[in-house]
Give the backbone structure.
Amino acid sequence: MNYNAFQTYLEIFRLDEVKVIGKDVMLDDVCIHIVGMGLRKECHNKGAFLYILEEQPLQEEYTSCKNNQTKRESMLESGRTDQKSGGSLYIRQIKIGETCYSFQGGSVGGLMQADFVQAYLLFQQMMEKGWRIPQTSPYYEMDWNHIGLSELRLNGIYDKLPELTGEIGQLTLGSTSRQYAVQIPVTLERGKTAELRFSLEEGGEEIICYINQVGMSQPLQEQQERFQDAQYQEMALQHLSIEEFEKMKKSVLDALEEQCPAGMGYFTVEYECTKEGFSAHFDTAEELDRISAPVETQIIGGSTGVTTIMMMGGKPEQETGPHGLRNRSTVVQAVVPVETQTLAAELFLMIETIPEKVYCFHT
């Protein structure tokens, strides 16, 4: 740290205006502390923001980027740390007094990590306006190594912060998810069905996953056929020039060719689950236990990053399966020759979708 660096931090993080809220809020059994609102007028990250403290795991518990870590270890650890965090980034709306404020995204960082300067400057400005954490709050004595600071951007354009009259009356948490490690070996055979029985915890409710159909997806061939379809071309050319269409076509097919060449494909699984609101994630033990180094690749759309994620899936033709349950479809993200008939896999995770929830607080 030197004076120039400090001055830069001051320009980036110091707020032009702050309004104190200073309230603990319980979201089921999780406590978050709503610090207040802040406004930046001039820098690249200008706008109005809501600031929240939430409990987080220690930084060293985030091991998804550790060297020599398998995909299995990374995904299991990610699930454990996600369950320990407060989830403030999922807040979609808050009602203060008679006014509702909605958000368009945000960020969260640990107080003792890279965001220490931001937290220090925020706390200083808020304390000057009367902010204090009450001694009854769990955040009063909590070690800063366990606290994260969330910054949620308010929708709209603000020249100054609104007057915050009244108490917090309502808070809306958007749809979230929770994952459960199952790790049940299964042989997927094309044209065959299977039935997997398990529980999410010892002694818990038995859940059945009915595998109704196992097939093969060839994304390169499917996309080639799509681009050759006259109806699709006509629709696309309503929005793109011929040159733009051809450029998009080449970009998509080149990316697919790199990841899943001709003659290769992915196993697809159609299934039903007796537990409503849960979806299944299948993978191969070979992929799960592989240590892979990050590589620079191109993502469809023009951006670059350390990995490319091909969002491939499908929607079953029938919404209801043969067992009278919702029919779902997923793709096993392991490239195999298209003539492959069987695949040694795992039902690795069950993922619970938690719907949007509105919390009402009596004042």
